[in-house]
């Protein structure tokens, strides 16, 4: 990441060429950089170069271009450069583009560093690191770590013949802590390893004799690890590497307050001036060794290395308790192979002859042995009392749960069923199946594997196949549970929810003029010709139906295409003939018939424009939920009735526009002449009540009229007689037709209560069940009776709104175990 990387392999040569033995000077060649150190032959001091960008427009490219040019091969600037290293690590974790502005916190940190780095231009360090006529030279390595970084620094302590002591910084190295969080003691151990490696590099590079090496750390845990033999893998590897590079007796404790490596791990602002502890080490190094910090061995709890021992043979009674470890596997094949590997390892460890050790792929005999061991462990967990009694040669009590099976132990110590078919010619496993309990995890894995092997067989077939080798106690319930818990079987057996039929809205039962509340839908296409005779051009046309909510009055219109303009023209023709409605209901779903897809896609794509146009006319447009045609059963039934007559008349004939429009008018008259309710048993009632009674004679704008049913017909004029007849029809409608609506013809009971956070499948008739989207209910929409029939479902592709007849409720784990 820094220029130090390309000098790392040549660091011994760099150090060897940089130290003049005669003068004791440290020499570093100059380099072109934004921030670095250099020297001239005429100068006895290092000078610092500075060219770090402090632009207000801070991007990733700006920081990288400046950071990569930092020239500090010996790490003399580590206390300053560790901060841009940390900024660089944060920058990479954000995964930003090159020219994208950095976050405010990173921008502020970079501007603070780049602005203060100019203070380093006035900083000068003597190049002489050894005292004149040095008679005794020591190396002191200091290590420290923080949550963000760790590092180490090397000092030369030289003593002259007259006893004068001089301490100078030789080199240092810093590293950013890994992004994955770890403990401070582990980071302190990494810093100690870095210090030992750096010291070994310096010792190999310097040509002056070194009398002693001393390593300093402020972590007592690290000192305890270095003198301990029981550590975990992470610690053990690093302790071994440190002990190879240094002697544990050379490691000493230093308080954090006088540890110069603490500046490396935490970083220092470039404008800080009091840095004598960094350039010349702690003050106690200038004194005799008696005044150095002493290490007091406190009682430190160090993590121990846990070991497992195997005892006895390879049978289940002598094996350690592996049930808890084996229970984490969800596949029987994986469990058996893992157990076989464990048994092979145990056998190889006990074998003194190298040629007898097993290698390569697992053999069939090893897998069979592992299977037998797993069976013994399962039986030991499920039937400990029975195994103990039969192992002592005792028979089971007649009241015991397994007494009816007459169990026994075979030559391998496996509990089997005695049974009554000993004299049959079946195989041994079928005559004496292995006893297992349905509640054990191994039995569940066996049922799961057999269910998949039998290509998702049902519970009865599954249990019959299992009993060819095993006898599971409580196997019937486990077989049903295994089939229910299979995700694939759940998807194929998923059933949609049909809640109880809802209450009728006020628009269906309150008295009002015909077509004040209507539902509309499309049907078709129907092929028409442009003229009669040969050479005619065949085009598509569609049927638009308007049906009254109260009296089931039907109005049919011929539509040339499915454009929004054509529909609005059709609506205007309807208003001109039948009057302006108050509310229009419309289907907003897709049916999986080709014609219905085309029609409903038109409604979906133009729903907003239709709503806007209708609102300007004072009409409220309401759309039913998607994929819920049963919400518009009234107009769906009208379309069905219209098609019933159309297809029988049309057959394969192609009519013209006028002929088809005339046919629609005739069918409309037939539909409006259907009885609304069963005929009255009275012989005086000669005609049934039909939708036509509410259409004929009704003006488009009717004025309020007095109640005329109690008046004699002879006293009324012609207009009043017509009004009396109309009121008579409405009275019959309220007394005869409305009472017929009380009974629910289907969806008579409530289904299971759908709740928020229930897991459901969204049914899609165009895809197989395994491709149905999985979602979780986020919101319910109950009706006036409190029964929810529409729900919002959160899926991986967003939230969708569906009626519950398109949702398949998946059973919860509690339902499966019930």
UniProtKB/TrEMBL annotation:
GO biological process, one term: DNA integration
Domain of life where this protein originates: Eukaryota
GO molecular function, one term: nucleic acid binding
Source organism (scientific name): Spodoptera frugiperda
Domain Integrase catalytic: 510-699
Pfam families: DUF5641 (PF18701), Integrase_H2C2 (PF17921), Peptidase_A17 (PF05380)
InterPro entries recorded: DUF5641, Integrase_cat-core, Integrase_H2C2, Retrotrans_Pao, RNaseH-like_sf, RNaseH_sf
Protein name per UniProt: Uncharacterized protein LOC126911715
Leader peptide range in chain numbering: none
């Amino acid at each position: 990441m820094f220029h130090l990387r390309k000098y790392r392999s040549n660091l011994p040569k760099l150090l060897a060429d940089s130290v003049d033995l005669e003068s004791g000077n440290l020499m570093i060649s100059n380099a072109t950089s934004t921030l670095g150190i250099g020297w001239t032959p005429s100068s006895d001091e290092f000078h610092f170069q500075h060219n770090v960008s402090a632009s207000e427009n801070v991007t990733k490219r700006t920081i990288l271009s400046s950071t990569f040019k930092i020239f500090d091969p010996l790490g003399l600037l580590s206390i300053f450069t560790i901060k841009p290293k940390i900024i660089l690590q944060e920058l990479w974790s954000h995964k930003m583009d090159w020219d994208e502005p950095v976050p405010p916190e990173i921008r502020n940190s970079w501007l603070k560093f780049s602005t203060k780095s100019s203070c380093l231009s006035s900083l000068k360090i003597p190049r002489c690191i050894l005292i004149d006529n040095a008679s005794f030279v020591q190396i002191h390595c200091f290590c420290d770590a923080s949550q963000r970084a760790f590092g180490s620094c090397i000092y030369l302590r030289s003593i002259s013949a007259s006893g004068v002591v001089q301490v100078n910084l030789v080199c240092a190295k810093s590293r950013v802590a890994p992004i994955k969080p770890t403990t401070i003691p582990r980071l302190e151990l990494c810093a100690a390893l870095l210090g030992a490696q750096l010291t070994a590099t310096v010792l190999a590079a310097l040509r002056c004799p070194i009398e002693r090496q001393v390593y300093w750390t402020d972590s007592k845990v690290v000192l305890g690890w270095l003198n301990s033999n029981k550590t975990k893998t992470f610690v053990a590897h690093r302790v071994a590497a440190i002990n190879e590079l240094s002697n544990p007796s050379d490691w000493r404790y230093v308080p954090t307050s006088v540890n110069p490596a603490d500046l490396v791990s935490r970083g220092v602002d470039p404008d800080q001036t009091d840095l004598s502890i960094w350039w010349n080490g702690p003050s106690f190094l200038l004194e005799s060794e008696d005044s150095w910090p002493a290490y007091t061995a406190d009682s430190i709890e160090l993590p121990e290395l846990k070991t497992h021992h195997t005892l006895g043979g390879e049978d289940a009674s002598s094996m350690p308790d592996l049930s808890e470890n084996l229970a984490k596997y969800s596949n029987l094949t994986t469990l058996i192979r893992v157990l076989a590997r464990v048994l092979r390892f145990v056998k190889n460890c006990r074998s003194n002859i190298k040629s007898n050790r097993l290698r390569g792929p697992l053999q069939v005999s090893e897998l069979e042995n592992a299977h037998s061991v797993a069976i013994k462990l399962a039986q030991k967990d499920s039937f400990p009392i029975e195994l103990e009694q039969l192992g002592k040669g005792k028979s089971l009590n007649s009241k015991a749960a397994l007494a009816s099976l007459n169990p026994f132990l075979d030559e391998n110590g496996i509990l089997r069923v005695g049974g009554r078919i000993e004299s049959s010619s079946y195989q041994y496993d079928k005559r004496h199946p292995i006893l297992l309990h349905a509640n054990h995890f191994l039995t569940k894995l066996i049922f799961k594997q057999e269910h998949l092997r039998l290509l998702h067989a049902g519970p009865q077939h599954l249990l019959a196949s299992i009993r060819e080798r095993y006898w599971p106690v409580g196997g019937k319930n486990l077989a049903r549970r295994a089939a229910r818990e299979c995700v694939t079987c759940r998807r194929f057996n998923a059933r949609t929810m049909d809640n109880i039929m809802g209450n009728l809205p006020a628009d269906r039962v309150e008295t009002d003029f015909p077509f004040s509340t209507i539902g509309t839908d499309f049907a078709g296409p129907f092929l028409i010709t442009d003229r009669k005779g040969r050479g005619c051009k065949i085009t598509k046309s569609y049927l638009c139906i308007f049906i009254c909510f109260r009296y089931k009055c039907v109005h049919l219109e011929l539509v040339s295409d499915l454009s929004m303009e054509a529909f609005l023209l059709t609506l205007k023709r309807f208003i001109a003939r039948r009057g302006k409605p108050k509310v229009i209901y419309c289907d907003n779903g897709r049916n999986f018939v080709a014609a219905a897809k085309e029609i409903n896609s038109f409604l979906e794509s133009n729903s907003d424009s239709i709503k806007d146009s209708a609102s300007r006319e004072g009409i409220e447009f309401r759309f039913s939920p998607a994929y819920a045609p049963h919400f518009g059963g009234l107009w769906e039934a009208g379309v069905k009735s219209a098609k019933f007559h159309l297809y029988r008349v049309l057959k394969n004939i192609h009519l013209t526009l006028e002929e088809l429009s005339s046919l629609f008018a005739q069918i409309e008259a037939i539909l409006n002449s259907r009885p609304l309710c069963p005929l009255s048993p009275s012989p005086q009632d000669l005609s049934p009540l039909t939708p036509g009674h509410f259409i004929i004679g009704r003006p488009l704008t009717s004025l309020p009229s007095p109640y005329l049913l109690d008046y004699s017909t002879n006293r009324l004029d012609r207009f009043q007689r017509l009004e009396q007849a109309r009121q008579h029809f409405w009275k019959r409608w309220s007394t005869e037709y409305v009472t017929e609506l009380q009974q629910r013809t289907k969806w008579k009971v409530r289904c299971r209560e759908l709740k928020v956070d229930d897991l459901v499948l969204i049914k899609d008739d165009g895809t197989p069940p395994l491709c149905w989207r999985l979602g979780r209910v986020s919101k319910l929409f109950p009706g006036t009776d409190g029964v929810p029939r529409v729900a919002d479902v959160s899926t991986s592709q967003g939230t969708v709104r569906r009626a519950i007849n398109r949702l398949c409720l998946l059973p919860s784990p509690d339902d499966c175990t019930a």
